[in-house]
Structure formats: structure tokens, C-alpha cells
Amino acid sequence: MRRYALRVVSLAAALGLWQALTSWNVDLWLRFSQFPTVTDVARTFAARVSGPDYWTDLTDSLARILTGFLLAAVLGVATGVLVARSRLAEDLLGPVLEVIRPVPAIALVPVAILLFPSNEQGIVFITCTAAFFPVLVSTRHAVRALTPVWEEAVRTMGGGRWRILGSVVLPGALPGVFGGLSVGIGVSWICVISAEMISGQYGVGYRTWQDYTVVDYPGVFVGMVTIGVLGWLTSTAVELLGRRLTRWLPRTAYVPGARPPRPDRPVTPAPAAPAAVPGGARSEEARDEHLV
Amino acid sequence: MSTSSETISNTPPGAARDSSSEAAAPAAPVRGTRLTLAGASLGRPGAPALDEVGLDIAPGEILTVVGPSGCGKSTLLRTLAGLLSPLAGEITQDGKPLTGPSADRALVFQEDALLPWRTLRANVELPLAIRGVPRAERRKQAQTWLERVGLGSQERQLPHRVSGGQRQRVQLARALAGRPRAVLMDEPFGALDAQTRAGMQDLLVEVLQGTGATVVFVTHDVDEALFLGDRVALLGAGGLLAVRDIPRPRERGAHDDPARVALRRDVLTSLGT
């Protein structure tokens, strides 16, 4: 409760500072006199929310980023596993990937325009490329860092290649993969907004740039706030999903954003009463079925 | 190694384990398997650990293997498991050469080899799942095995929530759940304290009853080797030094039995400790 209060206070303080600087037209070295006030932005925001364009922009941007990001997640994990597990794949794909990787995704706009019949696909392509590399790199590292004995154990049980992939490699690499996904979703937002600014029709980025060109500064800020909130929501979603799928990780006492630590369950000699396990305790027991 | 050639002919005593004839264990069919090494050199290419090993492990016997750290005990076991191939010579199971790992030969690791994202029961279910046992059936069997190692009420715990000794018990249950014909154990109790270790040894003997599986048990603890084994193989620098029969029945603390005292002294001398 206290922590939520702190977060609200932090946001409120930032808004208050903004309002103070702009309404008093502070013009020291930084010039806030041209800056819209919080109330200006709020008024514009209210007007936009009741109009149709705002929601079209929002859903368009979301559709683009989700498509791009999901594609990147699947391709990134698949390529990462392949490159980490197969020397042939590493030799074949490695050089190409390493050359493309340093190119900022937004510099691929010309490529996207040349390659794809529609802007829409180009934007998804750029978003996907942006998220692909963080996912690829962290998957590759996570797969290489797997404890060898897990794989050996499954092999001595008669498990083959696919069983090892499904029962050891994928679940074992998951914590690392989610590291990449968290970075990826952030980069995706940067790129989807930039790409929309350059070549989009509709979309939060397109609208923000539009507002700038017609000198509608409060509108620009509405766009920025929207991007901020959407980005926060999506990365939180990725984070929560990751935490849910990797519940089995031994937990440190402090987890940012988690509920306060649960009272510890009696672990060792369960006093010979297997029947009554307290209800709350179930929550931490692994739901690992979906990983099998 | 000239000594090893003598020990090849050292045939094991009555292959049947004493424990399977005593006690009320249901007379399960003996499912043991014969593992034979002939002139085998073991190790990684470029780093051979054992040379010219000749050893015949009879179906259903418990062979313990002792030797100082780094003498190649683990290499021997990993080769028998099929994770390593011999550098030279031949290793056969019931006369057929080994070709890689198989569910027939379960390996119990010294380190923690449970999959940390699976509950204890899901870990024990794994070999059954690989064999294609239907879900309900494998759940039941896994539960039974967990009960046999005394963890029946903790089936939904994750490995990191239980103690090291309990994790080793789960590894044992997991190895046996696959109904292997040979169980290869690599210092499974090496990291446990003395108290837990003695309990685990008793549990092992009890749990193995009626499975009929051939057991190769590697340890650096001479007393553990003499307590558990039907025979003990002594490994030293570069090769197999000797194989000795161990008097039965199994008895902890029968330290005044002259035959046992002599054997223990003999083993320690052979190992050069």
C-alpha cells in the first residue's frame, strides 16, 4: 500500500513541477513559456478521447506493435535456439545476423519501402526487426548457459532431440528469453512510433508528428503521454507473463512490483499430515504442466 | 596395467542379490543386465582417464567403485551410461555393444540434476513420459516412487524448496521410475552429511529390493563401498587395480568381523591411502 502511495506521489510531483514551470512561464536557460501547461494538455486530451481518430490511432499502433513483436518473439527464439544448438546454423546465419544487427531498425525504412507493397507491412517489418535482435541474442546466451547435466539426465532417460528441446532447452532458457523480450518490447515502441512518423497513416506516432507540423503542441503532448502509457502497459504485460512462466526460479526476497513476500511455508519435514495444505500455499507451487 | 587382466576373470559371486532372497519383497522378475568392459580405454579424446579396463558386471549385482578423486570413476560411469564412447576396446550390454544413452541404463548424478522448473512429481514422471506412459498412469507411478523414497507428501514442491538429501532421493526415484535394467550412480550421496548419508544408504538398499536391476555405485568413501556392494572395484591412477568380493549379509558396524577388517585394510592398502 505504502509503495503504491509512493508511486502516485512520484507521478503527481512530476506533473506538479510541469504545471508550475509552464504556468509561471519560467524562462531561465530552459524556456517553458512556449510549453503547454498540464491543464492545456488535459483539455486537449479530453477532446481527443471523445473523438474517433484517437482510438483509431491507438488500435492501429497497437496492432502494428503486437504483430511485429510477436513475430520477433517467435523468430528470435527459434533462431536463437538454432544458432546456439547447431554449429552449422551458427556458421551459416551468424555472419549475416551480425552484419545486420548494428543497423538501427529505423535506418531500414528505405528497405521497407522498397520491399513491401504497403506502408503497413513496412512498419510491422521495422518493428519486428527492432525486437528480433534483443530476443535472438538473449535466447542464444540463455541456451548456451544451460546446465549441461539437465540435458544429460534427459538423454540417459532415452530422450531424443525434440524431447531435449521441449523439456530442457525451452523451459531452461525461458528466464533469459524474457530478458530479451522485455528489452524487445521497449525497442519496438521506439521503432513503431518513428516508422509511423515517417511513413504511417494513422497511428499514435503519425498523429504526434501531424500535430507538430500544424503547431498543435498540446496535441503533441497528448501523443507523448499516450505512447508513454501504452509502452508502460505493454512492458508490464511482458514482465508479468515472464514472471508467471518462471515462477520456479528461486526467488530473492525483494522483487520489484511483486506483492509483499508471502509467509514462508514449512518446507522440510511436513509434519505427517499430507492432507491439509493451507490454501494460500498452492499459489507458489509450480504450474509447470504447460512447459512439459 | 598387468593387474587388470587378472581381475577380468574374477567372476562375480552368485549374481542374485542377497536382499532379493531375504525379506518379503515380491519375487519380481530379475531384470538385471550384464555390462562388460573388455580392454576398454576411457576418457575424452586426448585425455584418457582409464586404460585397459576389463570388468564383467553380472545381472542384478551391486558393484561399488572406489578410488581417489580424479581417477576416472565418473568417466567410467558416463561411459557405461553411453554419454561418452570408449576410446578403445569394447563395452557391451548383454553381449551387444553400447550405442549411446538409453532408458535401459539410468544415471543418478552427483550434482543436482533435477529440472528446477518441474515439481518433484513431474521430475519423476519424466522418464515415464519419455517412454510414452499415459498421463494418469505415470502420475500414479511417480507418486508411488515418491512414497517409496519417503517424499509422498511433497510431490508438488519445486526442487529448490527441499533439502539436498531430499533432492537426491527424488533423483533416485526418477532413475528407478523408468524401470531401468541398470542403475549407474555417480557419488549420489557425496554432498550429504554423514547422518543423511547413512539413511540414504539404507533407503537405497531397501528401494532396490525387488527391482533386480544391476547397480554400479561410484563413491570415494571406502566404508560406503563396502557396505553397499556385492563386489568392490578399486580404481587407481590410470586403471582398474582390483575387484574384491564383499562378505554378506550387509551389516553396518560389524567392524570386529575379522574378514571385513582384513578386506577393509586390503582395500585401503591397494588404494594407497
Automatic annotation (TrEMBL), chain A:
Residues covered by the ABC transmembrane type-1 domain: 58-242
Region (Disordered): 256-292
Keyword annotations: Cell membrane, Membrane, Transmembrane, Transmembrane helix, Transport
PROSITE patterns, per the entry: ABC_TM1
Subcellular location: Cell membrane
Listed Basic and acidic residues bias regions: 282-292
GO annotation terms (biological process): transmembrane transport
CDD domains xrefs: TM_PBP2
GO cellular component: plasma membrane
Transmembrane segments: 62-84, 96-116, 122-143, 164-197, 217-241
Topology within the bilayer: Multi-pass membrane protein
Homology family: Belongs to the binding-protein-dependent transport system permease family.
Record protein name field: NitT/TauT family transport system permease protein
Lineage: Bacteria, Bacillati, Actinomycetota, Actinomycetes, Kitasatosporales
UniProtKB/TrEMBL annotation, chain B:
Keywords for the protein's UniProt record, in alphabetical order: ATP-binding, Nucleotide-binding, Transport
Compositional bias per record (Low complexity), positions renumbered to this chain: 15-28
GO MF, any single term: ATP binding
CDD domains referenced in this protein's UniProt entry, alphabetically: ABC_NrtD_SsuB_transporters
Disordered, as annotated region: 1-29
Compositional bias (Polar residues): 1-12
InterPro entries in UniProt: AAA+_ATPase, ABC_transporter-like_ATP-bd, ABC_transporter-like_CS, ABC_transporter_ATP-bind, P-loop_NTPase
Segments forming domain ABC transporter: 30-262
PROSITE patterns: ABC_TRANSPORTER_1 (PS00211), ABC_TRANSPORTER_2 (PS50893)
One Pfam family matching this protein: ABC_tran
Protein name: NitT/TauT family transport system ATP-binding protein
Organism for this UniProt entry: Streptomyces paradoxus
Source species taxonomy: Bacteria, Bacillati, Actinomycetota, Actinomycetes, Kitasatosporales
